[in-house]
Amino acid sequence: PDDAEITAKRVARDLEEWEYYKSFDSEDTGTFETVNVAGMVDTKAVADEVLARVRRNENHPTSTTCQPKMDLVFVLDGSSSVSMLNFKTMKSFVLDMTRAMDVSETGTRVALVMYGTMVDVRFRFNTHFDKDSVLAAIAALPETPLGLTNTGDALFAVSSTILIPSAGSRLYDLVTPQVLILLTDGMANIGRTPEAEADVIRSMGVDIISIGIDLSASGIGQLNAIATDPDSEHVFFLTNFAELRDILTNITTLACNANINITRPPAWGAWSQWSSCTTSCGPTGTRVRARTCVSANP
User: Fold this and answer.
1) Is the pLDDT of residue 8 over 90?
2) In sequence order, what E strands does 103-164 have?
3) From CA 215, how far away is CA 81, in angstroms rounded?
4) What are φ and ψ of residue 74, in 5° steps?
5) Neighbour count for residue 30 (Cβ, 10 Å)
6) 179, 258 in Cβ contact below 8 A?
C-alpha cells in the first residue's frame, strides 16, 4: 500500500492536462493501465482513482496455470495509428501474459515480431530461455517501427524466420502446442495478403488468436479470416486498448490450453550430395540425391 500510495501521488502530481488519457506504472506489479481524468477537478481525485487501480491490481494478480510447454509468438502492430500510450498498454498486456508462463528452454518459449510499414523480428524462440530475459526484452520494445499496417509481411516473417528449427521452434516434435497472438488496430494496407499468410501458418499446426481494437467492418472480416476457427473462441474485438486488461485472463487461459495440432507437415533433413551420373556422356544418364523425413505425423 505504501508503494501504491507513492505511485498514485506521483502520477497525480505529474498530470497537467485533464483532457488526456494518462498511464501509470505500478511499482509493485509492473503493469500499466489507463485512467480517464476528464472531468476530475483536482489532483486528489486523480490520486484516489490511481490508488484504487493499483491496489486492485495487487489484490487480483494475473494467475493462470499453463501447460508444461508451448511455443508462443506475439505479433504486435506498431504502425503510426497506435499512439505511444496505446503501445505502452499493449506492451503491458504482453508482459502480463508472459508472467503467467513457465518460460524456460524446456517449458514455454516466447518470440515477438513488431511491424508497421517494415517488419522487426525482435527475438526468436531461442533468443531468451528465462522469464526475466524475455520480460526485459518486452519492456525494452521501442515505439516503432511506425508507418503503415503491414500485417501480411509480419505473418510471413513468422512462418519464414520464427517457425523453423534454427530459431528454436519445436513445431515438428508433435508434442509442443504452437500459439500466435496478433494484436492490431487496423486493416492491413500494404504488403502481402494477411489471409493467405495466415493460411500457411495455420496449415503448419499453429493456433492463431486475433485481437482487434476499434476496427472497421473490413478489418473485422480480415481478423476473422486470419484466426483459427471457430472465430467465437479465437477472435476478440475491443473498442479501445484499455480493454486489453479485461480480456487478459481469457487470452492467457486460451493460449495455455491450446491443443496440439497433429496435422503438421513433415520436417525434412538436408538433401544429400548428388550421386555420380550413371553414364559418362549422352542425355540418358541420371543422378540421385536423397533426404530423410526427420519428423512426420503418425
Assistant:
1) no
2) 108-115, 119-123
3) 12
4) -95, 135
5) 14
6) yes
